[in-house]
Amino acid sequence: MGKVLAISGSSRDKTTNYMLRKVLEAFNDEYQKEIIFLKDKNIQPCRNCKSCHKTFKCAIADDMTEIYEKLIEADVILLGSPTYFDNVSGIMKNFMDRCLPFYFSGELAGRKAGLVSVGGFKELVESDKKGNCLWCKETGGCEKTVERCLNSMEYFCNLLGMKVVGKMAAIHGSPELKDRELLNLGKKLLDTSHD
Length: 195
Ligand SMILES: Cc1cc2nc3c(=O)[nH]c(=O)nc-3n(C[C@H](O)[C@H](O)[C@H](O)COP(=O)(O)O)c2cc1C
Description:
The chain is of the alpha/beta class and 195 residues long. The chain has eight helices and five strands; from the N terminus they run βαβααβααβααβα.
């Protein structure tokens, strides 16, 4: 049985998790599917103690111990993060930092990866009279800030030797509009999972 593991970097059960669940829908019963919600986990920050450089193991004993095992067992890894200040969320970044052992061990090399991110300050700034996002006006488009979040996760995956098969952005809190694209990302991950 194949395994697909999704990692959610959202601090609430909303848009990012919607997107992850939709991508997972594309996987049939021959796949074991799981979402790890980082917000519920006890994950300490990387201490840069360098022990993983030689041992390939992290010296910290916390919830990452179990997550390391699940990542190694997964055929497909799906990362989802809301865009926070042009980047991944803090809990996703913390998770990424704690994956440093994989940089040295190469244990995740060849895993297929999918990336999803959401952004758009719909809840944080007001729209103009026509309903246009004010943040878009300031930055030249929320698409750009979400793209930078996706780029950060892609950089991470590439450094660990994973193969990013596809990535998806949703902006302005309307992930349902992206259902078809999310399912297609899932299908693409499914199709390439054993390549
Ligand atoms: C601290 C913080 C920083 C944010 N920074 C950005 C940003 O730089 N660009 C952006 O498009 N949206 C930004 N947002 C908006 C979130 O990406 C948006 O609310 C998203 O829907 C959150 O995902 P969730 O529904 O999974 O929680 C920010 C939100 C918070 C709370």
